[in-house]
Specification:
The chain is α+β, with helices and mostly antiparallel strands and 155 residues long. The chain has helices spanning 12-15, 35-47, 76-90, 97-100, 102-117, and strands at residues 2-11, 71-73, 122-127, 132-141. The mean pLDDT is 91.
Length: 155
């Protein structure tokens, strides 16, 4: 078992593009269906695996390009250290003062370490100075408990 780290920052408006953050439905709309639905399904099917936006389901980071992986660790503690470093790096820009609190951040890191130790995933999100957003994820791999059918990150 190992863990992959992912980080995304960007405009909140782009983060809200939910169609590109969820995997396409496995069954396409009927070919004789509404043309806009058929076209949208094609777009999502082509873009979801390669777009850098955080997926709605954390495990789906595993189908994204390998270049989006920010680090890989066998030790859950080392993955939690990476998370702590990213939180410390971005905390001055957090929109909420309560989220900048070091005790709160330490609780998040401790909880993340426990979850990773148990084979779970971690996904955190923070509003930054408006209108930006920070998404951090640690995904357990080999296999992922939430989606064991998903392969390791692709090349």
């Amino acid at each position: 078992m190992h863990h992959h780290g992912y980080l995304w920052t960007g405009p909140k408006q782009r983060f809200d593009e939910e169609a590109l953050r969820r995997p396409p439905h496995p069954d396409p709309p009927p070919a004789d269906g509404k043309p806009e639905l058929v076209q949208r399904h094609r777009e999502v099917k082509a873009e979801f695996p390669v777009v850098d936006l955080p997926p709605l389901e954390t495990a789906y980071w595993l189908v994204k390009p390998r270049k989006l992986v920010r680090g890989t660790w066998r030790d859950p503690g080392a993955a939690a250290v990476w998370l702590a470093e990213r939180l410390a790096e971005h905390a001055p820009r957090f929109d909420s003062g309560a989220q900048r609190d070091t005790a709160h951040l330490a609780l998040l890191v401790g909880s993340a370490a426990e979850r990773l130790e148990q084979g779970g995933d971690v996904s955190l999100g923070f509003y930054l100075e408006r209108p930006s957003y920070l998404s951090l994820a640690l995904v357990t791999c080999s296999p992922n408990r939430a989606a064991p059918e998903l392969a390791r990150p692709v090349a």
